[in-house]
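In response to reviewer comment 3 from the previous cycle, which asked for concrete evidence that the modeling workflow produces usable outputs, we include below a single protein chain processed end to end. The sequence was submitted unchanged, and the resulting structure tokens are shown without manual editing.
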Amino acid sequence: MTRRFQLLASVFIAASLSFASAGVEAKSAPKGSAAASVAPEAVGFDSARLQKLDAAMAKVVADGRVSGMTTLLVRHGKVVEFATYGKSDLAKGTATKKDDIFRIYSMSKPLTGVAMMILFEEGKWKLDDPVTKFIPEFKDLKVMTGLDEKGNIVTVPAARAPTMREIMSHTAGFGYGLGDKHPVDKLFRERRVLGSANLKELVTKVADIPLMFQPGTNWSYSVSVDLQGYIVEKISGQKFGDFLADRVFKPLKMGDTAFYTGPQKASRLAALYMTDPKTYKMVSANDLFGNSPPDYTKAPTLESGGGGLVSTTADYGRFAQMILNKGELDGVRILSPAAVELMGTNVIPQSVLVNTNGTSGSRFNDAVGFGLDFMVVNDPRKAGSLGGKGEMSWGGAAGTWFWIDPTNDLYFVGMVQRLGGTGGEDLGTQARTLTYQALTHPEK
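The workflow returned the following structure tokens.
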């Protein structure tokens, strides 16, 4: 959110020439949704200006930065645009479809957060509970303070156990292993924490790896949402995936969201790509943070709340609309308005200096912070954004992104499948700017 929002006019000129060839389909309601389509002008958008969004997204595909894409823009519960671009599988030449299934990776995190908040509302845990109340394996956590002359990690005991608030806001100090520059992250990779056989094994491995910093003193994108999935299991007595299905996916009619597709839906899973470091071209992805890609036709033994779910654009849109509606959709209430408000409230102390939000390299401040499993925007203009105050958002490792804007009563979901995003201009930033420049009558 704090990155510069730029897009040269030449992008639109070039993109308009390739718009038709990119395979764009727009302005129809998501499958399985009660949302109806609406003319952009009816909800405050300028159709001509909105075409700049279409042209820019089409150009991303035409330039070969991603194979295909879907975007969904909804305001006041009405579909302004639901567009598809390019191919879901380059080798097969399969056109992107609106019901394609995507690996949403870290967009799993807000869904896990909602599962946690369901149990919070039932009085099963409190924000300032020590995590050891539910994961006693963490009673003797150590904290890295540096390296000795041989390069070994030097530790001290943790001053206290991390709290539930801290594991829901990445301020507990846990590593992750998505990168390998930090010694703690190197241990996560060496011990294949994300490749654990199940959540219990993951917890056991994490317990034996030092924290990056004392709990509550910094922010670092972490394995803590996988730990939340384990806590959901401990509190509810259900497998994490079963709890999500029973309490979130089925009530919200998110029929294509799960930890796997099963064989019957496998053909709808979009192909996953990555950037070849030598040619900078897209190639099929065969490595995921040091692990082989999973077989999505089979139920996984590790149900990763931090990054294991697959979903469709329309399914995730239903989740976003529930959050936008303050916890309710189609007469089904998942959370109270207060619980949604709590998730969207910044909990990072002003004293904490944050060097990265996991995907963008930006620094949190009084304009942009982090709530409970969502990034939140307190002052969009100070952040350099055209969006609305109170925006809740995040993204996924394969370039997927979304944001929910309660001020303007809209949400946006973008789906692509390229590890590390698209390179160059960030799609989420680009789409956000082009969406709001087209919202010329927000009062409607």
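The domain at 115-236 is CATH 1.20.58 (Methane Monooxygenase Hydroxylase; Chain G, domain 1). We consider this sufficient to address the reviewer's concern, and the full set will be provided in the supplementary archive.
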